[in-house]
Every structure is written in C-alpha cells, then in structure tokens.
Design a protein that fits this description.
This protein is α/β, with parallel strands linked by helices. Helices cover 34% and strands 16% of the residues. The protein binds adenosine-5'-triphosphate (ATP). Pfam families: DEAD, Helicase_C.
C-alpha cells in the first residue's frame, strides 16, 4: 500500500481554530447537525468542522462553484433545501443535476463517494419533473433494502415539503397494504415487492417516466435482484423513460450490466483511489484468535464512549450472540439481520436513529446507504467477503461509509484474528491503494485516548503503525 490517507486537508478544525461568531448552536436531528450549513458541530466532543471550507476546496467531493439557485431548481425546492440546512450543492449534486434536468431527459450512471449527497441529486430531479395536478405514479425508485427505501421516502418528503399535495409512498412488505392500490406521485420500493405489486396490478405504471436504482451496482450484480429490476423496467411503458443509476461503487464487471440497463447514459465515475473518504480514519486491531477478538470487542466498548456505532458481522448467529453478550454487559444494543419481520426491523431502526440504542449490530444487509449522522464509529468485526469467500472491497467501502458523512469525522476499525482475515483486509486496502493503521492494544488507556482523539481531531496517534505485509503478531 503506497499512499497514506492524506491528513493535510482532513476535514476538521478545532474549536479554537474556528471563528466562534460563525458557530450557531442550532440542531436538526442526531448528535451532529449542520447549523446554518456552515459548521457541523458534535456537542459530545466540542468539535466544529467547517463545511464551508470543505465546499471551497476543489479537491473535496463536497466542492461546488454553483449555488442551488443556479441549478435551476424551482423555488419550493430551494425552500425545502434551506429548511434542511443545505446551503451549497456537493460536487455530485452540481454535476449530476444539470445532466438529469436536461430536456428531453437522458439516462445517467453516476458514482460519488459515500455520504456526498447522491440521494438529493436524484430526488431533486424527480421533484422537479413530477406534475402534481393528479396523483398518478410518475417516478419510481428501487433500493436494495426496506430500511433504505424508507429513508429515501423520508428524504423525498422533506425536500418536497413545499410542493403542495405531493404524495410519496413505499412499496415494501407491509401486511396492512395488502390488496390496496398505490396512489402517489413518487414510489420507493424494494425490487421484489415492486414486481409483486405490478403483477397484482396494484400500481399504474403508465405514467412512470423516471426509474432510479439506488445502490445500482449491488442490485444489478445480484442474480435475484438484477432480474427483478429488469422485470420492473420492462413493465414501464412510458416513453421516454429516464433511467438513473447511482452508487458509490461501480465495479468494472458491473458496468456492462449498467450500460445495458441505462443505454446511452451520461456517466460520472471515479477511480478506486478517488473513492477514499478523508474524514474516515481507518484502523485495524490484531487479535490472536476468535475468543480474543470477542473479548477485545467487549473490552473496547467497556472503555469507550461513542456517540453511535455500527458493528458488522458475517452471520446472523454472530449478530445475535454478540448482541446478547453486549446487552448483558449493560450496553444499549440493537441487532438487525434478515430474519426479522418488517415491523421488527422498523422498530430497531427507530431505536438506533433516535439514539435510544447506541450500538447497532448487523450483517451486510445494512452495509449500504443508511444515513445516521451520529455514527462516529464502524467496526468490521468480520472482514467482508463475497459469497465465494474472497475479499469484498465494495462492501468494506460501503460499511465504513456509514460514518464520516458529508464532511463529518469518523473511525473505522477492522478486527483481524487469523491469517485469512488479515489477508482479506490487506487485499481490500490494496484495492483502494490506502493505508490502514494498527491500533496497539498493549496499553488500553492509550487506545481510549487515541480513538477519542481521532473522532475529535481525525489524526493518528503515537501507537498507531502502518499496516505492513510482515509483522502483525497474531495474524501473520
Ligand atoms: N448539499 C448538502 N448540504 C448539506 N448536507 C447535505 C447536502 N447534501 C446531502 N447532505 C447530507 O449529507 C448526508 C449524506 O447524504 P446521502 O445519504 O445522500 O449520501 P450518499 O452519497 O447517498 O451516500 P451513500 O453512498 O452512503 O448512500 C445526508 O445526511 C444528507 O442530508
């Protein structure tokens, strides 16, 4: 691994560096808010990140020259953005919106780093195009999970708050909606439920002129979901149909499906090395075996005070047993994996979003898209692997992207406990040409200080070493 994660433009400024007069104490939701759009303030650590500075740095993905007004958005939409404290577009918003809003509409395949505001880009296009005079479905978003579909609907509703009569609905498994026809301007669903709804003639598809796939690489790559997405597309007769694909990752092998799904699309893509999010400090912890890994995790949580965090594991069984152990030690933990019923999943997300639960233990089911601003730490308890046991860089990237969102700081810690897990992590780091740092657990007081400081200052401390192919104790 060659280049160290650049820290010179790390998106933080300490309280003393930031002019106090610019800091407003207003809070929106979560522990981090963007008061007036200028600063992101973390009350727990008293850190201010000057979002204005990030958005003025041409090398930062949040950079833009234009304002939302200059992007030709209708006045009610600008009003909605102001209410959400969105002052300036990010790079992806500034670049994608003019392409999306062109007439006649054209297809778009767009990639941008995690947490850089892709949702707003495709949402503002839909809100700009829908006609509100009759409640007819005109735009459809497909997302890989229930949780993401719900989140996207909420974003559409907030951004469209000043559009009179706007109706947005989810198409997700919901026993109370059985047999009821969907009547909304915009629908957001998971592919399986949408296919079923179309089959049962509960969705009038004739006027749907926009089809968006969020996390498009994931959906097109997965056998089942890819087929379902295709079936949905075939069921949309409207001409022209604007097909919009968004993701933080588009592996080369998926691009060919993407191009077939969205023919003649404009493309905005990144090289793997450009995907690194500077605000996320990436570390790893080296354990000698599984038992030690388990004990180390508990010790770590026993010591640290963390706003909110997500622990990713490989299996449902690990998720359940870790949750049980942590709850018995007094931690406010929830766990979410595929076997839970829809309403149980909703309740888990509600507890986590509200802060009632500080720790969410989950599998890859929640690795993508989820936006909870108070998440300052992501733990890869199991290093992500694909179904054939190979390293899975995309999933690693999406998982750690649950922190460090829109200029915020965050820490990602990966646990390795044997040669396989170490090799997998090393391959992932190599894929992105990035460095990971060893968190030395010989002195736990130091660990506590260092990790706290990173969340605070996003800088590596003294006992952090660079990951080397040779020389990691238990894993080599
Ligand atoms: N222009 C903006 N100004 C301020 N905040 C913004 C702006 N655009 C988006 N945000 C906020 O940034 C956060 C991340 O946005 P979003 O969830 O759309 O990211 P994303 O690019 O889709 O990430 P991922 O790849 O992880 O799905 C959200 O909390 C959103 O409200």
């Amino acid at each position: 691994m060659s280049a160290e994660i650049p820290t010179e433009s790390a998106p933080v400024a300490t309280a003393s560096e930031a002019p106090k007069s610019d800091i407003s104490a207003a809070q929106t939701d979560g522990a981090f808010a963007a008061p007036g759009g200028d600063y992101i303030q973390d009350p727990e650590w008293d850190v201010q990140v000057k979002l204005k500075d990030l958005q003025a740095d041409p090398n930062n993905p949040l950079y833009s020259i234009k304002s939302f007004n200059e992007l030709q958005l209708a006045e009610p939409l600008v009003k909605g953005l102001v209410k959400l404290s969105f002052r300036k577009p990010s790079k992806i918003q500034e670049r994608a919106l003019p392409l999306l809003l062109r007439d006649p509409p054209t297809n778009l395949i767009a990639q941008s780093q995690s947490g850089t505001g892709k949702t707003a880009a495709f949402v503002l296009n839909m809100l700009s195009r829908v006609k509100l005079d009759t409640i007819t479905p005109q735009a459809l978003v497909l997302a890989p999970t229930r949780e993401l579909a719900v989140q996207i609907r909420q974003v559409i509703q907030s951004m469209g708050e000043f559009l009179p009569g706007l109706v947005v609905q989810n198409i997700i498994p919901d026993p109370s909606k059985k047999g009821i026809k969907y009547e909304a301007h915009i629908l957001v669903g998971t592919p399986g439920s949408v296919v079923e709804t179309i089959k049962r003639k509960l969705l009038d598809t004739r006027q749907i002129g926009i089809l968006v796939l969020d996390e498009a690489d994931n959906m097109l790559d997965m056998q089942g979901m890819g087929d379902q997405c295709k079936r949905v597309k075939v069921a949309l007769p409207h001409k022209p149909l604007q097909v919009v694909l968004f993701s933080a990752t588009f592996p080369e092998e998926v691009m060919k499906y993407a191009n077939q799904f969205a023919p003649n699309a404009d493309e905005i893509t990144l090289k793997p090395s450009q995907t690194v999010v500077k605000g996320i400090r990436q570390l790893y912890l080296d354990c000698n075996n599984l038992q030690e890994k388990f004990d180390t995790l508990l010790k770590f949580y026993g010591l640290m005070t963390i706003a909110s965090s997500i622990i990713y594991v490989r299996t449902r069984a690990t998720s359940a047993s870790l949750a049980q152990r942590m709850i018995s030690e007094g931690h406010a933990v929830v766990q979410l994996s595929g076997e839970l019923e829809g309403h149980e999943r909703d309740a888990v997300m509600e507890k986590f979003r509200s802060g009632e639960a500080k720790v969410l233990i989950t599998t890859n089911v929640l690795s993508r898209g989820i936006d909870v601003q108070s998440v300052t730490m992501v733990i890869n308890y199991d290093i992500p692997e694909d179904k054939d046991g190979r390293p899975d860089p995309e999933t690693y990237y999406h998982r750690i992207g649950r922190t460090g969102r829109f200029g915020r700081v965050g820490v990602a810690i990966s646990f390795v406990h044997d040669k396989d897990s170490w090799d997998r992590l090393y391959a992932i780091a190599k894929h992105f040409d990035m460095e990971l740092h060893l968190l030395n657990t010989d002195d736990w007081d130091k660990v506590e200080d260092e990790v706290s400081n990173m969340i605070k200052h996003n800088r590596a401390g003294a006992s952090i070493e660079t990951m080397q192919k040779e020389g990691t104790a238990g894993a080599s």
